[in-house]
Every structure is written in structure tokens, then in C-alpha cells.
Amino acid sequence: MDNSVLVVGGGIAGLAAARALRERDIPVEVAERGGARSDGLAINLPGNAITALTALGVGDGLRRLGRPTGRREYRSARGRLLFAVDEDAFWGSDARPRCVRRSDLLALLTGGLDVAVRRATVREVRPSSRTEVLFEGGERADYGFVVGADGVRSVVRAAVTDQSGVRSSLLSAASWRFMAPNPGVDCWTVWSGAGGAFLLIPVDDHEVYGYASGVRGGAIGGSPEWLRETFGGYPSPVRSVLESITELYHSPIEEVRALRWSSGRCVLIGDAAHATAPIWAQGAALAVEDALVLAALLAGDAREPGGGWDTVGARFEQRRRGRVTHVQEATDRFSRAAGLPTWLRNPLLPVIGPRVYRETYSALRTLDIHPPR
Fold first, then answer.
1. Is residue 17 very low, low, confident or very high in pLDDT (cuts 50, 70, 90)?
2. How many CB atoms are located within 10 Å of the residue 186 CB?
3. How far is CA 239 from CA 107, 187, 207, 229, 242, in A?
4. For 27-74, how does the pLDDT look when each residue is reduced to its tens digit (9 = 90+)?
5. Does residue 161 sit within a domain?
6. Nearest-angstrom CA–CA distance, 208 and 245
7. pTM attached to this predicted model
8. Are 290 and 191 contacting, i.e. CB atoms less than 8 angstroms apart?
9. Is residue 367 situated within a structural domain?
10. CATH number for the domain including 112?
């Protein structure tokens, strides 16, 4: 039986899986189709993402990227501070959240990774005792295991379930993401009003990563004019950024609520399995955690006579489903709260905001990647 693993997708989830597998001496190949990406943007990494990346072996390099996020501020559309969170105190020095450029994080995950990359598009995966993969152009290949790390529009998902599981976020159907000169913001700061939320996170002293969306579901404008119309009356840091945005991306906010993540020797990880709206910044965090847990399960069974990879998928789901469900439920609750009228939402946030932050992230502060004996 071929004991090699094919990872479909060369983003954060796929590269993390490839690194985790290589660390455990499991032969692995990555299939990446390439194409349009948003690597010029940044990414917010909460404490559990830092913990997972450190466990992956890239913690030292990560600490040289971007900027730590020591504090969060939630403000009204007029700039009034509703509540704040001391993230340094909550996460501790070993798991300080950071905002880093996505391209830098991808380079960190790629650095020193001795893995073959197949520049090809996967058309179909047929999981069984041997997993057959059909590539664009008609080429076929067999692998011992396939990992679908190919995002919201996953091709591999069709091998696992006949339902796409893709839905629009309750918060908003779309968002704008961008980079801009830092207008003087020194911490993670969001301004939220009746029409939308506007988030800025410093990447360094000179540049911020920004995110803007609606807060009541439904469509938002696909033209940059929507940003000016919605946020033109917000405080000066927001208006300054609107005048100086350097990179601007409009994209849907889609979530994946797949009922199954595995079939035979095929497993979905990251956004392919459980994409969520970025309220708690768990996309990369959960993806890297998935990679670590899956690699540990595959490595453990590789040592068994005859292997045990036929049952890895079911055991992976059992290990990960509760944690992912916790994030999904917290995302839905916050999305509904964000859609409340501001006359009700703003008085409530100082009371419930800090508690919701603690309840959401407290369950994510520890990570067990070792399979039970």
C-alpha cells in the first residue's frame, strides 16, 4: 500500500499539513493549482494560532514577523470606547496575538519545506482502500491518503459529501479587506455603527491591515464607493484610511458547515471543512490545529502493522468537531448581536463584550495534538 499523502491546496492549511507530515517522516506531496490570491494582505493571528504555529516548529520565525497585538478596543461609530481587552494578560507572553503579512507567513511555512509541489488542478478524488486522484488533463495517481486543504470552494469536498455546506455569513454577505498607511492606531480597533464595522490592526508602525463589512447580513456594495458612503462619518482614523488605501479586495464572506469531513482515506481540513466568518480570526488557527492533529493520527497509525489509515478520518472528526462547533456557535451569536440596533447594542456591549471574549477564547487556550493511547 502506498503510504504517501497528497495535500490538495498550497495555502496556510495545506502548507501546515505538509510541514506537520514531513516532521513525522511521512512522504507527502502538495498539489497547488495557483491563480489569484490575496497574499498582499495581512492576517490576524489570535493566541491559539500562535500556539499552533509554535507547535508546528515556526514559532521563532513568527516572532520576527509583523507586530504583537497587545490590546483590543471596541468603539462606537462616533469613537466612544465601549470596552477593551488586555490580550497580553489574557494569552500570556508565549501566545501573544500578532498581525502579520500573509505573504510573510506563507514564506515562513514554505521555508525549508522539502516537499514536491505539483502545479496541477485536481478534478476528482475517489477515496477507498487506495485513494485515486484525477488531475486536469487526464492524469491519474494513487495515494495512501488525501488531505483536502483547498478552501471554501473545495473540489475534494465532493469526495466526502454530496452537500456543499457553503452558506453566506449571518454577519454580512461580503467584506472589503485592505492595507493602508497607519493613521496613528496603536492596537486592534473596531468601530461599529448601524451600517457596518470598520477594523484596523497595526502590522507595524507604518501600515495597518483593515477589514470592513456590513453588520446586518445581506449584500454590501461591490464598489469602493460603498466604503465612503458607509464610513465617511466615522472618526478621523477611519476617514484617513479611506483616503489612503493602498490595496483593496472585495470578497464574499462564506461559511462552510459540512456535515462530514472525511470518507475513506480522504479528510477535509481548514476552510474546506469549516470556514467561518472572521469574527474570532479562527481561519488560520483552526487550519494549523487541524494539520497538527491529523499528522499525529497518521503518524501513529503508520507505526501499526498494516497501518490504520482507514479509520483516521473518523477519529480526526471526533477529535476536532467539538472545538470547531464552539467557534461556529460563538460566531453565530456575535453575528446576531452585531445586527442589533445601535441603541440596544451599544449599551449591552460594555456588559457582555468582555464576557463573550473570555468565553470564546478560554476554550481555545490549550491545544492537545496527541492522539489517545
1. very high
2. 12
3. 33, 17, 15, 11, 5
4. 999 999 876 566 789 999 999 999 999 999 999 999 999 999 999 999
5. yes
6. 10
7. 0.95
8. no
9. no
10. 3.50.50.60
